[in-house]
Amino acid sequence: MADDPREEAARYRQERERREHPEFYGEEPAAASTPRPMTETERWAYVETSLQQAIRRGEFDDLPGAGKPLQGLGDHHDPDWWIRRKIQTEQLSGLGPPALTLRVENQRLNETLDGMPREADVREHLEDFNRRVIEARRQLQGGPPVVTPTRDVEAEVAAWRARRAQRERAQASVQEEAEASPHPRRRFARRRNRTRENQTD
To answer: Contact 92/86 with Cβ under 8 angstroms?
Structure first.
């Protein structure tokens, strides 16, 4: 005959209470097993094993700059290098202290000017750039020093004209070559006609 379910439940509760509170039954509580701390050699082995497993899984493949030398090695120390690098890689504009944003803008200034169609726009942009550089040099809120130079408006406008003229000459040359060369179908037709003439001869 099966045991009474109520008796089984009572025994289960008693055993659980004995396990949780052995001191109530005159027993010594089981000593908690504390893990042994890892030695330095074991820690190095664990790290090396984790790295090797990650390499085998391909977690380090196709990282930015893989197989290339580290940028900025040998340059002068710049405490804000990470901000400047973030602005450049993310192509952010208007973020960060003026010293860094103006430095990035100065590096791309010729490209920005080349995208402007009118000389008046170029002059206005250069004057605004110089004004912001001068204002940043007068800053009173601290931050990295502003080392970006101002631009000579007349010299930059002359350089902008020269670059635009060079682009126009290059475009005209490409267009002349395209117009001078016969259409591919015409070249094929001429070649086919010459082949037929040679065969009839």
So the answer is: yes
Total domains in the chain come to: 1
* Helical ranges in 38-152 per DSSP H: 40-57, 81-90, 98-107, 109-114, 119-137
Residue type, 32: A
Is there a domain that residue 117 lies in?
A: yes
| Both tokens assigned to 106 | 């100065």
pLDDT along the chain (201 residues), means of 10: 68 78 70 72 89 88 75 64 70 68 88 92 94 84 78 94 92 82 56 59 55
What is the pLDDT, as a whole number, of residue 125?
Answer: 94
Q: Domain for residue 52, yes or no?
A: no
Q: How far apart are CA 82 and CA 85, in angstroms?
A: 5
